[in-house]
Every structure is written in structure tokens, then in C-alpha cells.
Amino acid sequence: MAHSYEEYSEYINETYNEFKEDEKMSNKEAIARTLNEYDMSMKKSETDKAVIGVTIAEILVSHLRILNTFKDYMIETISELNFKLIEQENKLTREQYIDLLLRKEQVFKQLENKPLDYYPRVCWYYEELTDEVNKFFDQINTGNINKDEIVASVFQRFERDCKNTLSEKIIVYTTLAENLLKLGYTKIEGLQRIKEELQLFNVEDVREEQLIKEERMKLVVRIDNALEQLNNIG
User: Fold this and answer.
1) How many separate domains does the chain show?
2) Residues 172, 194: one domain?
3) 126 neighbors 169 (Cβ within 8 angstroms)
4) How far apart are CA 211 and CA 204, in angstroms?
5) CB of 19 within 8 A of CB of 30?
6) Which domain holds residue 93?
7) pLDDT tens digits, residue range 147-190?
8) Is residue 108 located within the same domain as residue 159?
9) Spatial contact of 61 and 110, defined as CB atoms under 8 Å apart
10) Mean pLDDT of the chain
11) Which residues pair with 66 in a beta bridge?
């Protein structure tokens, strides 16, 4: 193997987190890019394939949903691993071999039980993006930033995502509105723009594959609550 057993897992997770933190990618895009990064390494040996495949699968099952084609690929990859060949390659200690086998069996069961995502385009999931906007808002909402700059900063951070799908755009706007209202930032620049976007939004314009039924219902309730508060302040 190009790396030791422990190093592979460490490097793969580092690559995934770099795509998320440095490139500001969603979980869905980051895991796809990570798999692509290690695709050639998986072809070096059955041991490499197993260590990389199992580690990728372990990251994947931490996601809320899994793209149906990605799930099929990973289940096929994991199920077809040849542990007799891995033993013959003799690249792992006995303890590492047993550990990898146990990890493979555990993650395979988790993969089978994960909910499916049928939208092939890379995008953020509902709860994932809501959490990301909340986190970024908390990071920038300090004494070092002018309150009028908050909206612009959030739009700049999520500009790519707002252009990607309507669901991502409206989640960003809704979550931003909730944070501003919660803190009483009702006189800052950009709030009227947010209000207008929420008023114009129609959940029927969002493709069903982007948001599941429960997410659509939650989003509509959140938008209605935000608009009610915005209308009360004029």
C-alpha cells in the first residue's frame, strides 16, 4: 500500500474535511470529490481497495441521505471485497486484517439502511445547509463586523450554493432571516431583499428530489413564521 493502514484512514478523512472546510463544499460534493481523489489508489491492490472503500463508506453513512447510484456503487464495492486475497497480499497485520473485516461488515449494514437521495446534482441537504448557515452566522456575528455587512457576508459565502438550486437559495435566505430576527437586527441593509425573496417563494417550484415531503413542510412553516415577524416590523 502507498500508506499504512492507519495513515489511509487519516489521509482520506483529512481530504474530505479539506473539501468541506477549505473549498466550502457540501457533504455530498465533498465525498464525491474524495472518492475521485483516491480512485486510482483503489486499483493498486485489493488491500488498498478495501481500506479506501471502507473508509469512504464510513464517511458516507454519516450523511443524512445517500445518492442512490453512489449507494449502489459502494454496496457493490464493499460486498465484492476479496478478504482471502487481502490475506494473501500480506500488507496488514493480523490485528489490522480483523479490524478491517469488522469495519467492512458494520459499514455494509449501515449502508443498506441509509435513506436514498435521487437528485443527481451535488447540493446541500436541508438540515445540513441550515446548520452551515447558522454556524457561519455565529462566526461572523462579532464586534469586529458592522451589522450592515452581515447579510452581504452570508450571501458572499453561500453565493455558489444560492445559484445552484432553488432549495439551497431559499434555505440560506430563510435561515439568515431567522438569525437576524432572533437578534433584533431589523434595521440592517439587505433585510428588505430577504423579505421580498421569501414572499415570492413557492414551494411547488422546488423539485421534489431536492427536498423530501417533511423538509418541504418544515421550510414552509419557517418561511411563514419569518414573514409574519418581518411584516410586523414594517
Assistant:
1) 2
2) yes
3) no
4) 11
5) yes
6) 5-117
7) 889 999 999 999 999 999 999 999 999 999 999 999 999 988 88
8) no
9) yes
10) 94
11) 116
CA distance 225 to 228: 5
Task: Encode pLDDT of 125-155 as tens digits.
Answer: 999 999 999 999 999 998 788 888 999 999 9
d(CA 153, CA 15): 26
Map the chain to HEC letters: CCCCHHHHHHHHHHHHHHHHHCCCCCHHHHHHHHHHHCCCHHHCCHHHHHHHHHHHHHHHCCCCCEEHHHHHHHHHHHHCCCHHHHHHHCCCCHHHHHHHHHHHHHHHHHHHHCCEECCCCCCCCHHHHHHHHHHHHHHHCCCCCCCCHHHHHHHHHCHHHHHHCHHHHHHHHHHHHHHHHHCCCCCCCCHHHHHHHHHHCCHHHCCCCCCCHHHHHHHHHHHHHHHHHHHHCC
Predicted TM-score (pTM) of the model is 0.89
Q: Do 94 and 136 share a domain, yes or no?
A: no
* Same domain, residue pair 77 and 9: yes
The CB density around residue 8, as the number of other CB atoms within 10 Å, is 21
